Amino acid sequence: MTGEVAVLGAGMHPWGKWGRGFVEYGTVAARAALADAGVDWRDVGSIVGADTVRGGYPGYVAGATFAKALGWQGARVASVYAACASGAQAVNTARAQILSGLADVVLVVGADAAPKGFFRPAGGDRPDDPDWLRFRVLGATNPTYFGLYARRRMAVHGDTLEDFAQVKVKNAAQGALNPNARYRKRVTAEEVAASTVVADPLRLLDICATSDGAAALVLSSMEFARRHEVADPVRIRAVSTVTPRFPTTVLDLPDIATDSAVAVEPAAETFRASIARAAYEEAGIGPEDLSLAEVYDLSTALELQWYEDLGLCGEGEAAKLLREGATAPGGRIPVNVSGGLASFGEAVPAQAIAQVCELTWQLRGTAGERQITGARVGITANQGLFGHGSSVIAVR
Amino acid sequence: MSRTRTRTPVVPGWFAGEGDDFRLLGTRCSACASVFFPREDAFCRNPGCPGGELAEVPLSRKGRVWSYTDSRYRPPSPYVSDPELEWQSYALIAVELEFERIVVLGQAVPGVTVADLTVGMEMEVVPGVLNEDAETTWTTWHWRPTGVGA
């Protein structure tokens, strides 16, 4: 048992395309989380920023950038980057500081201001950078990888385009109830089917947008939470930040090829499945104990993949689980009750933190119209490119 | 007006040969026999390997479709395309090579669309052209269904 940390506060800047800088969004989210926690910024002993690669130098030193914006007060600082998993790395850094006694209260912040259109690599000719190479040599955008995974599921498991569309319908209905979501309109299966194909077989409404947004958490030791008179806080019980094991057998962003398994037999479990397993083992729970899950639905088909990787159902059974309504509100294991990336769009360094914000509100019972009755245990899951696992388990 | 452009691989050392002799080039570790594509020349990435010499090795010509998709919108730079011309989508195919137990992504030969493809279909690697500028024809590899003639 690693030990738990308390979630004292959660806050966001709404997702959208607001035309302002990431520092402004992050500061709004940080202030919201501090206010929610009832903690004065000057009493925070450490700040951890999840970096953005789209904001110039201030983005690479996000922790200090946010500390300066909030007003220098001498706190310990760290800045972390792990692509889509940056938020989980930031949470884990904060947790490690708290559990080791280096800090009592830590502020975690992630924010991004996303460009229009496809994500693209950093500028300059860099033929030793796989992210540059996949664009130069193949024109392989992120959605083409999502298309590959979707087509593979259709061929191997018999998933249909209608199944994928139903994921969007489910998540859009939840996004309509979430004031922090960018897209707040319900969507029909017909609208998904009528949207333009981006990367066969996926359509525009199967694929998440890129957004501006920010999320923040105030984490503390259990002892500090008691002193702060929070008797029964939401607690983070596990943070999984595992890497893959050689040889990888699933083609992952931004790679042009998998590892070769000619000399070493691959592990029975895929990388994504190992992310969740590590979290379950650390928390001492299993998928049967979950009240809800927030997963990284970069595409509708990828949400179905996560059902299997989290052990919510057996391999190949995700579409069946969806069709039964098990992952909708009121079902056995509601998934993406926040509306997911389908309703938010991706604000890379904020996203994994936003997932934990939703767990926090659900476990407190303050999620309003989205509330899952009696939620006690939640899991988040995502994967950052270049081999970053990310999963957080929170309980109350 | 026509003049001779230099044919240059888009990435040096990833493929070589003409016609039926065309091959993707990887490297193989002399200690553990792991194969790498894109090639590793400095270190073996098998965590259980003490580290051997990495020697160039041609990959199998043929494999089977692991999955496929296409690119209906113009990819951003550094992909090179003429913004004056209407975007023509192309298929991307992930092909599993049975002997090497590796999946390699590549563009389909021009004219092959997703409608022509199924998972499990046999493919072969052939030389292709990625783009041309004033002085250079940038060459690459393409995947082509084995049932299709040259």
Low-confidence stretches of chain A: none
Helix fraction bin of chain A: 25-40%
Which two chains form the greatest contact, residue counts included? A-B, 46 and 49 residues
**Overall pLDDT confidence of chain B:** 95
Distance between the termini of chain A: 16 Å
Largest sheet composition of chain A: 9 strands, mixed
Q: Indicate the overall shape of chain A.
A: globular
| Quaternary form | heterodimer
- Globally, the shape of chain B reads globular
What fraction of residues of chain B sit in β-strands? 35-45%
**How are strands sequenced across the largest beta sheet of chain A?**
3-2-4-7-1-8-11-10-9
Q: What's the end-to-end separation of chain B, in Å?
A: 27 Å
Question: What is the overall pLDDT average of chain A?
Answer: 97
CATH superfamily of the largest domain in chain A: Thiolase/Chalcone synthase
Query: Which CATH first-tier class of the largest domain in chain A would you pick?
Result: Alpha Beta
Strand segment tally of chain A:
11
Organism (chain A): Streptomyces flaveus
Protein name (chain A): Lipid-transfer protein
GO molecular function, one term (chain A): acyltransferase activity, transferring groups other than amino-acyl groups
